Fold this protein.
Amino acid sequence: MKKLRLFCFLMLSCMMLASCAFRSSSNAFGPYSAAEGYYKKANYPKAIAKYQEYLAGNPQGNLAAIAHYYIGKSYAASGDRAKARESFDVVVTKFPKTSWAAFAKEQSKALANTAKV
């Protein structure tokens, strides 16, 4: 029984490591994938541009609410609180029944609270 468990553990570990090593050369979501990369590198102007590019082609796409949300986060990180709140408002208005709307409300509220300090 112990040998079977060890074998299963090793096989599972190998599969996990192999999946980490695989890297696709193409961006599965085009501009959205590029935007995520720029956001992670704190290059907010380029992230905003790429999120907007994604939205231009996919205004109601599966990632549209998330793109608007991260546009808001990018503006907030860049110090443009007004545009950040506008972006968060878009998420709340266009995608009210998503968890992203709740996240956007929290971010908008946090921006309002830091403005009072």
Notes: The chain has six helices and no strands.
